[in-house]
Amino acid sequence: MSLKRHPLIVLFGSWGRENIVLRLVEDGYQIAKVVVPQPESPNLTASIERIKAAGLEVAACRKASLAEVLHPLAGGVLLSVGFPYIVASEILERFRMCLNVHPTLLPRYRGPTSGAFIIINNEKETGSTVHLMDAGMDTGAIVAQSRVALTRYDTTRSMQRKVYAAEPDLVLRALELLDRPDFTPQAQDESLATEYPARRKPADSEIDASKSLRELYDSIRACDPTDYPAFFHIDDQRICIKLWRPERPDDEMEDAL
């Protein structure tokens, strides 16, 4: 039976990714409820308003009440998009299928804040992965992936925009694959796995001023100029760094250098 015939419950907690939800509605999927974390992040407000404007029911809940909120929806399909709470195994077992959209190419760069390390490591590509949810963090079998190219001028913001833009098509493709009786999700290769579980802190953006700018370049562009700008100290004064290119081509991402 097509997944379109089953209610879809979206666990949503990542601003800028609401186009996944809106695209599912356009394609005819039945979204029973969108669950968001409480308290709501200020960055999430605009995304939630767009979801509500599409006529969808949005419920805010704290981690402790997640099981209670989801209980009446058991038997549907669970889709997590940047949701900040780990969903317990006993909750996952109540649903027909549980999927997560992780914004890296798993099994590499697991964890909630791995994006900066993709830039720091000067990766040439990245993307997103739709995978089955299990008891681990980003460890379930892979359903589908999307890939985007990166340049030496991408920042965490421009990378994020590239990755997010491809996700609506990716999620639809993943759901279509799961409707095929001959399709089997692929187990992750643990020998390739990398994990960055710790949330990034402002202190992580401090750079070693004794190194050259060329050595520090990838670390600097990995720092968000607003939320966690690269910085160093001179005479106990914090000096922040922002990079830009005055001759950036017009067709490049707005947030790229």
What is the fold's blueprint, element by element?
Layout: E1 8-12, H1 18-26, E2 31-37, H2 45-53, E3 58-61, H3 66-70, E4 77-81, H4 89-92, E5 97-102, H5 115-120, E6 125-132, E7 142-149, H6 156-178, H7 213-221, E8 230-234, E9 237-241
Parallel strand pairs: 1-2, 1-4, 2-3, 4-5
Antiparallel strand pairs: 5-6, 6-7, 8-9
Give the structure's gist in a few sentences:
With 257 residues, the chain is α/β, with parallel strands linked by helices. Helix content is 25%, strand content 21%. Helix 1 runs parallel beside helix 6.
Structure description:
Helix content is 25%, strand content 21%. The N and C termini lie far apart (47 Å). It has one domain: Rossmann fold, CATH 3.40.50.12230. Helix 1 links the parallel strand 1 and strand 2. It is globular. Helix 1 runs parallel beside helix 6. By secondary structure, the chain is an alpha/beta fold. A seven-stranded mixed β-sheet has the order 3-2-1-4-5-6-7.
Helical segment count: 7
Strand order of the largest sheet: 3-2-1-4-5-6-7
Average pLDDT confidence is: 93
SSE series:
EHEHEHEHEHEEHHEE
CATH architecture: 3-Layer(aba) Sandwich
Give the CATH class: Alpha Beta
Uncertain segments: none
CATH topology (level 3) name: Rossmann fold
User: What structural class do you assign from the helix and strand content?
Assistant: alpha/beta
Q: Per the principal axes of the C-alpha atoms, what is the gross shape? A: globular
Percent of residues in helices: 25-40%
